[in-house]
Amino acid sequence: MEANGLRILIVEDENSGKSDTKEVLSEMHAHPLKINWVSGYHSALNAIHNGEYDACLLDEGAGAPAGQELFSKADILACKAPVLLISEQGNEEVNPETPPCETANLQDKNQLHANTLLHAIRYAVASKKTKAALAVEKEKLDITLKSICEGIITTDLNGCIISLNDAAIKISGWPSQAAIGKPFFEIFPFIDENTGAVLPNPALNIIRSGETCADIKNIILIDKNGDEKVVQRKGSPITDNDGCIIGAMVVLSDITKNVRHEREILQTSRLVSLGQIAGGIAHDFNNLLTAILGNIQLAASATAHENSDNYLAIAERATLRAKELTRRLATFAKGGKPEKRPTDLTNLIRESIGFALSGSNIHPTIFTQDDLYSIEVDEGQINQVLNNLLINANQSMPNGGIIGIEACNCEVTAENELQLTAGKYVQLTLTDEGTGISAQDMPKIFEPYFTTKLSGCGLGLATTHAIIKHHGGAVTVDSIPGKGTRVDIFLPASAITVQEHVYPAKKLELHQGRILIVDDEKIMRQFLVEAIHRAGLEAVAVADGRDAIVSYEQALATQHPFDVVVMDLTIPGGMGGEETIKQLKSIDPHVKAIVSSGYSDTPIMTDFMRYGFSDVICKPYNIIELHTALSRLLKKL
């Protein structure tokens, strides 16, 4: 910075007869300065208040009160120009409370030299301007951080919080004064959304690895009040000028509202989709029920010369088809988090086609690669995806047409436009010959409630996108108006293979055992008693959990205990299976019980041993399936 043109105010005692400081400055002919000299306390205050100077040189003994007292006055320290204090004995006598950036390292006034004084002035002016600029930048940064919707937290090398912005305070619920200095994980404890496991401190992971990171799935944050918030995290190390790591910065995005909205969309979409395919379901069910009812009546009225077994066999096959349709309907309609299991995509495709295109004039063509990778998915949710896409394709071809469905293996590299993790995937492609989607509508197709159909609700593709994203996959859509649409879905491959279903033997001989049946439906109790008698076993049936407890206690007391309990999970108006098994366990810790229900996706049915049951059987089931379940437990006696 050039000293030329600097405006200098000198405040010096007039009793000295001359201004020593002014004379020294006048010697600097190479750097002409604009100098004004005043003496006395009040004259100095007035001059400083005007704020027309770049620097002020203040004699410690100027006027009365002393110059150092004048220096310490708040209105002087608030002035824009730096104030330099000159002492009779140099800096040793300068008040230690004087802000160091406001004073120069000067010799005493008897040893002033032009160059020394010029250097001090230049340093003080530059320092003042730098400080002012930094203050402005800090204010801008504070405003920026406060306006950012994402929570920003910085930590030191030990993972302790140094700073956090307003958004981070709102997300965590902790005020800044309580959070600063605390370990990051104390203020921001994270758990896995699916398992509930406590997750490690991301700040320390960043510091140790020295790499930026970002979560590929949602994380749960437990805030100060114990409430759960769904967040996404990003982070990077903080380095100094030499590139050494000195801390970490973690950025949090609170997506709780978005996730809740997404779940509402998924649930609404299920209901809408069910409504759209209700006609096809009713059509299939009515056909099956007619076949069942008609063949049972034919068997009942068969004469001695007729074979009733044939009619009953037909009724049985129709019943099994109705069971499968019911299973698919229940699977399709269930909600909640994805319950991933190894799944055969080929079978799932064929089921969905029969389900969504029932009664339509659409011809599907299917091709699946012979060695197609296995996938781990929520069968109900992927079934819903397929149904949404098939229904969309069906509606785009009111006069009929062809839907092509193809599934093949593919490899995704680290550099991909879909933002997928590198690895093996199954690519599912659906093509139709429908009306297509216009170029102006394409950017909005995944938005909830956006639709180009008069009767549509705009949830099909939004739901599809959300489900595939939750499965770690991606979905793309290409369309040519008037020619058709192509949808590509990418789902991560799994190393776990799908286990083939092993069908039970036609007949099992069970020669001894005493079975307690608990079911509120009389027709079910009658069937179970007869089926168990057919296997050579003794059966007692009750309608409620309370009656079951009484019967079980009496059987123990008479030394004639039950070997197995077959228990319905839901008893309307009575004690159901969950509460009953708890009380039976308190009576007999070794009780063996089979839980049964038509709701196959409840937690108890999917994790029955955790609730105290020994086996599970899903309704509807046949006699062989019942005997097989009983056999598994009776063999353990």
Topology (SSEs and partners):
Layout: E1 7-11, H1 20-26, E2 34-38, H2 41-50, E3 55-59, H3 67-72, H4 74-77, E4 83-86, H5 114-147, E5 151-155, E6 161-164, H6 166-172, H7 176-179, H8 184-187, E7 190-192, H9 202-209, E8 213-214, E9 219-222, E10 228-239, E11 245-254, H10 256-300, H11 308-333, E12 341-343, H12 345-356, E13 362-368, E14 374-377, H13 379-396, E15 401-412, E16 423-431, H14 460-470, E17 474-480, E18 484-494, E19 514-518, H15 522-534, E20 538-542, H16 545-557, E21 564-568, H17 577-587, E22 593-597, H18 603-606, E23 615-618, H19 623-634
Parallel strand pairs: 1-2, 1-3, 3-4, 13-15, 19-20, 19-21, 21-22, 22-23
Antiparallel strand pairs: 5-6, 5-11, 7-9, 8-10, 9-10, 10-11, 12-14, 14-18, 15-16, 16-18, 17-18
Helix pairs in contact: 10-11, 10-13, 10-14, 11-13, 12-13, 13-14, 16-17
